[in-house]
Amino acid sequence: MSDNSIQEIVKNQLEEFISIREHLHAHPELSFQEHNTATYVSEKLSAYGIEHETGVAGTGVIGLIKGNNPSSRIIALRADMDALPIQEENDVKYKSKNPGVMHACGHDVHTTCLLGAAKLLQETKNNWSGTIKLIFQQGEEKHPGGASLLIKEGVLENPKPQAIFGLHVYPHLPFGKLGFRAGQYMASCDEIHITVKGKGGHAALPHQTIDPIVIASQIIVSLQTIISRRHNNVQSPSVLSFGKIAGGTVGNVIPDEVKIEGTLRCMDEAWRKEAWELIKNQTKQIAQSFGGDADISIPEGYPSLVNDIDTTNRARTVVENILGTENIETLNKRMTGEDFSFYTKHVPACFFRLGTSHNGEFEHPVHNAKFNIYQDAIGIGIRAFYELATKF
Fold it and tell me: Which one of 277, 297, 317 terminates a domain?
């Protein structure tokens, strides 16, 4: 089937795919709670006549589409399904119906693109060779990452894919464009959980307390020097940030403890593990120097995402042939994390970006209460998935 024919099919069915995205957007579910989303995906796959399994590692849905000579090549396509704990502020007909939960990272778009590609692949399976594995993944936004759980359940076996592809919305890239980067692309991502322990009391009598708020403040300021003074490496950057501090109930009472949560992002694995120990030791020493103590937990998170160079370059060529070289951008490294990185440790992989802004609109960043997309971009995502599945 010609590229023009696929383009025409996508164009004719785009309203159907947009309605799927709007349904998913209006009914978001948090990580590892994607029960209704998984059911919806399963219903769509059944309607398309696609063999699939539900309840994989919880809420994962795995499908298989077999073309001619099914064992000749195995390609996997992955989309994540979970949403974020954000109250949506967009005024659209498909605004989230679930209070405090929103598809603010575009996973509704990713799922739609994969469902759209799945439908086209099923309809045209007599025109291509091999087997396509569809991975609708849970829990990308939350440790330990749904990808790691699916891999433990054997998602990359029986059959084992020769390559895997994933896409992600990118509001800083205009509609009609895709972005690629061969080699290292995204940082590792670790959560930091600290409980500072002191001795509470009256705020007017601080000398009778061990103030965990003061200790926590010192810890946060001091830990920043771990990056600036111990690893200020522009070739292998790292980021240490704290986004949550909680302690106390009123202004005139010093609490017994304060909780701090943060994130560590690294591009170098050896430095990443060294930083874990520096954070733990420095936190403990500061707390004890004030007469308090601290519990520190840094569960190992997502590894750095490294796109296979050959796979990514070949994938880029495939989409250049359908969209034109002028519509393919080279991405910069970024300090955000992605659990697609787990797949890259096992299978040659390519994680690329889908442009979703249009004429200066839809440029709110992901993880923002006003994030949204120019919905025609869904058609580009579907075509990219389809072409990679059939031509790579």
Answer: 297
Nearest residue to 262 via CA among 284, 280, 241: 241
| Cβ pair 41, 61 in contact under 8 A | yes
Q: Point out the catalytic residue in the list 29, 34, 80, 82.
A: 82
Q: Which amino acid is at 225?
A: T
Closest to 195 (Cα-Cα) out of 244, 266, 239, 240: 244
Parent domain of 76: 3-186+305-391
List 80, 140, 190, 308, catalytic entry = 140
Residue 88 catalytic? Answer: no
Neighbours of 367 (CB within 10 A): 13
Same domain, 155 and 237: no
Q: Residue 109: is its pLDDT beyond 80?
A: yes
The reply to whether 123 belongs to the active site is no
Question: How many Å apart are CA 150 and CA 166, to the nearest integer?
Answer: 15
Q: Does pLDDT of 292 surpass 80? A: yes
Say what the pLDDT of residue 1 is.
63
Domain boundary among 262, 297, 332: 297
Distance of alpha carbon 283 from alpha carbon 297, whole angstroms: 11
Confidence of residue 344 (pLDDT cuts 50, 70, 90): very high
Q: How many Å apart are CA 185 and CA 21, to the nearest integer?
A: 27
In the beta sheet, which residues pair with residue 262?
A: 192, 242
CA-based torsion, 264, 265, 269, 275: positive or negative? negative
Identify whether residues 88 and 162 lie together within a single domain: yes
- Tally the domains of the chain: 2
